[in-house]
Structure formats: structure tokens, C-alpha cells
Amino acid sequence: MPSNRPKLSLASATVTTKAIWLLLGVAFVAGLFMARYAASFLALGTFVLTLVPFGVARKFDVYVPRRFMAAIILFIFATLFLGEVVDFYNRYWWWDVVLHGGSALGFGLIGFLIVFMMFQGDRFAAPPLAIGLFGFCFALSIGALWEVFEYAMDQTFSMSMQKNGLQDTMWDLIVDAIGGLIGSGAGVVYLIRDTDTPFATFFREVITHNKRLFVKYRSK
């Protein structure tokens, strides 16, 4: 039976995503002309990484809302290109905080959907608070693993990803917890109220266009 869900392709990318690709292309060429090869390499690497979410979604046949996909692309761009090439991490002390909060929010939303999917999309199979708790733990676990990665890179390659050490790590985890709580909490509110709550449109779009993953929704 043919699916009527929107097609996810590079051509269907949002204006924001296409603008980021254009900026990366310009930065790559400019870096070559100015002999800033490291900047060109990072611009090219960032561009390649922005294509990965599209490839993963198509590989596993999962529909991802265009705006959420654009948010993922923007995060990659802000982390690698703006953070490293344009040096936003050193220019703006709050840049790392914003990125951690944004990523934790996204992982909170994703974690909630993963757990909800494991219960076959049945809101009565488990208490909404329990589903939200597991979603929160998922987001916080990703944040903790990232801190382990930063520590390993600093110890192995004498980098400075942790910057102020314990102080930086603890603030990152606190922001991760807040972002994860907001994301998973939005899912809990959605299950309880099922109205126009924050991110309700996002949840509905994901569930509606991925019904095969949410068994209880197949007949709706």
C-alpha cells in the first residue's frame, strides 16, 4: 500500500538548511583561496556531517519532520563550524551552554519517542510519568557519555574540550538535565492532555508518519 507521508530528501530541505549548505560551500572555497586549509577542511567535514541525518533517516525508512531535521543541521553547523572555525566557544562564554541545552532538549524529545515506541504507542501500557522518566534518563545519559568523550580526548590528545575541568563538566550536566527534563516533560504533558501543548505538533507528525513503529496507531 503506497505511503502518503511527505518525502524526506535533500531537495525538500528547509530554507535554513540550504542556507547553511551555501555558507559552508562559500567558506570552503574562501578557505582554499586564502590558504586556510584547516578552515576549508572543517567546512567540508561539517557539510558531510549535515548529510548524515538524511542518510540515516532514509536507511531506516524513518520520517523526520523538516523543521526538526533543520534543527539537527543547525546544531551541527553551530557546534563544528561556528564553534571551531569562527571561534564562538572562546568569543561567547554562553555558546557551549546553549548548544548543550539545545541538544539535551532534542535528546529528551527523541528519548521520549523511543520509549513510547517500545510500548507500541499505547499510552495506557505505561504511566506517562514513567515514559517521561526513561526519556529524561536517555537524554542525560547521552550528555554524560559526551563528557566522558571530552575527558578522554583531553587526556589522550592534550586537548582542552573540558576547559575549566570539573566546573565545565558539572555545568554541562546541569544544562543537559534541564534540557532533557523540558523535552521529556513535554512528552508527558502531550500524553496526559493530548492538546496543543509544547511540541505536540512535533509528536503528532512523527507518530502519524511512522505508524509502523507505533503499532497501536496503525488503525487510527
Structural class: mainly alpha
The average pLDDT value, as a whole number, equals 86
Estimated radius of gyration = 19 Å
Whole-number count of domains? 2
Share of residues in helices: over 70%
Largest sheet: none
User: Which band does the percent of strand residues land in?
Assistant: under 5%
Characterize the overall form: globular
Low-confidence runs: none
Distance between the termini: 16 Å
Number of helices: 8
List keywords for this structure.
0% strand, 2 domains, mainly alpha, 220 residues
Descriptive notes:
- This protein has helices at residues 15-33, 37-59, 66-85, 88-91, 95-118, 128-157, 166-193, 200-209.
- The protein is mainly α.
- The chain folds into two domains: 1-89; 93-220, no CATH class.
- Helix 5 crosses helix 6 (128-157).
- The two termini are 16 Å apart.
Architecture blueprint of SSEs:
Layout lengths: L14 H19 L3 H23 L6 H20 L2 H4 L3 H24 L9 H30 L8 H28 L6 H10 L11
Helix pairs in contact: 1-2, 1-3, 2-3, 3-5, 5-6, 5-7, 6-7
In brief:
With 220 residues, the protein is an all-alpha fold. 72% of the residues lie in helices and 0% in strands. It folds into two domains: 1-89; 93-220, no CATH class.
